[in-house]
Amino acid sequence: MADHIMSTYKRLPIQFQRGEGIWLWDNENRQYLDALSGIAVCGLGHAHPAVTRAISEQAGLLVHTSNLYGIALQEQLADTLCELSAMDRVFFSNSGAEANEAAIKIARLYGHSRGIDNPAIIVMEKSFHGRTLATLTATGNRKVQAGFEPLVQGFIRVPYNDLDAIRTVAANSNNVVAVLVEPIQGEGGINIPDDDYLQGIRRLCDDNHWLMMLDEIQSGMGRTGKWFAWQHSTVLPDVATLAKALGNGVPIGACLASGQAALMMQPGNHGSTFGGNPLACRAAIAVLEALKQEQLVTHAAALGTHLLDGFNTALSGLEGVTAIRGRGLMIGIELDRPCAELVGRAMEQGLLINVTAERVVRLLPPLITTVKQADIIIEQVGELIREFLTP
Ligand SMILES: *Cc1c(COP(=O)(O)O)cnc(C)c1O
Q1: For ligand 1, atom 10: residue with the closest CA
Q2: Ligand 1, CB within 6 Å, residue ranges
Q3: For all residues of the chain together, what is the average pLDDT?
Q4: Which is catalytic among the residues 34, 92, 244, 311?
Q5: pLDDT tens sequence across 37-65
Q6: What is the mean pLDDT of residues 139-160?
Q7: What residue ranges define each of the domains in the chain, with the CATH number in brackets?
Q8: pTM for this model (two decimals)
Q9: Catalytic option among 128, 155, 228, 311
Q10: Does residue 244 carry a catalytic annotation?
Q11: What percent of the chain is predicted at pLDDT more than 70?
Q12: What is the 3-state secondary structure (H, E, C) of the chain?
């Protein structure tokens, strides 16, 4: 019975017992293709042998000490993340929201260090940054905020993919210290900005001495066909946040920073009891190694193209499909009407998908998905949408 669970989620009437690769089995042993990966978490699929081995081994050695002591696995993970991202330093958290909290606190420290007493961060419409008070304030969705007022001060909202809107803020405010933005909006509906957007933000940040802070919590860890989505462009952010796929399901988040931003946090400014503990770091190290060894980042790029091509063919000429968007394995199919019921219909057919922003079918399949399995996804999702739109 779920009577003792707070009803923060409207849950589907289904529970899973075990998983393997892209497959899950429920408690009646029915099999499901997981095209959502626990919302972009299980990039390596379920029960990946290397991750399982790393977790089991580490559980028998040492799960937790404290950030009062050195943690070799944390240092090793930070080294690898900095090598992949060209960033300088990492703070480890337990979730995405906490990684963004660290970013927001860095921006405020940075502002105060420049003599700005009431620092503000530019954030976007339709964004999602988490459920803590600061991150729900940064989030561009009233539903996430409603009932939790008073919200946190110090955020200025502009439309996504609109450099002029940021320029207007720059011209009219003197307390902006940072821009916080998703390189591709996930919850907002798989919104992919123009090619020059990040470059434009980088330039505005340079001109105005702002920090460029990228929320890569959903788009990072190889999902879009690069280790981090900003690597599709030539920019380098000052701050970048990770979580979701970093531990393949073991809770871990990270706030990466470079240059001045990396030097803001000093002892006493910030912390976490669990953040970056040996178990979580060992899991994340295994995840990074597996992604490299199996060359899954380039695979994600190729498979993403295959999926997009497949959907464009499968759904071509279908009135009611207003857009098919994707980069790597972040894919959104936008319809002209609300389509939340597709989630349940898919589930009945043994397929796990998601609908976000009311009208966008969102697919976030594991990076280990094969071309054959991708073809199953194309066929099943294509058929599902076709049936839904042509009753
Ligand atoms: C999921 C997500 C978060 C929040 O992460 P939690 O681990 O749920 O706190 C923040 N930003 C983006 C872009 C996300 O997709």
Answers
A1: 129
A2: 95-97, 100, 128-130, 182, 186-187, 215, 217-218, 243-244
A3: 98
A4: 244
A5: 999 999 999 999 999 999 999 999 999 99
A6: 98
A7: 16-48+295-389 (3.90.1150.10), 51-293 (3.40.640.10)
A8: 0.98
A9: 128
A10: yes
A11: 100
A12: CCCCCCCCCCCCCCCEEEEEECEEEECCCCEEEECCHHHHCCCCCECCHHHHHHHHHHHHHCCCCCCCCCCHHHHHHHHHHHHHHCCCEEEEECCHHHHHHHHHHHHHHHHHHCCCCCCEEEEECCCCCCCCHHHHHHCCCHHHHCCCCCCCCCEEEECCCCHHHHHHHHHHCCCEEEEEECCCECCCCCECCCCCHHHHHHHHHHHHCCEEEEECCCCCCCCCCCCCHHHHCCCCCCEEEECHHHHCCCCCEEEEECHHHHHCCCCCCCCCCCCCCHHHHHHHHHHHHHHHHCCHHHHHHHHHHHHHHHHHHHCCCCCCEEEEEEECCEEEEEECCCCCCHHHHHHHCCEECEEECCCEEEECCCCCCCHHHHHHHHHHHHHHHHHHHCC
Ligand 1 atom at minimum distance from 219 CA: 13
Nearest-atom index, ligand 1, CA of 130: 4
Q: Which of 215, 226, 238, 274 is catalytic?
A: 215
pLDDT digits over 95-122, tens only? 999 999 999 999 999 999 999 999 999 9
Q: Is 128 a catalytic residue?
A: yes
Which residue has its alpha carbon closest to ligand 1 atom 15? 218
Per-residue pLDDT band at 234 (split at 50, 70, 90): very high
Atom of ligand 1 nearest to the CA of 244: 7
The reply to whether 372 belongs to the active site is no
pLDDT at 1: 78
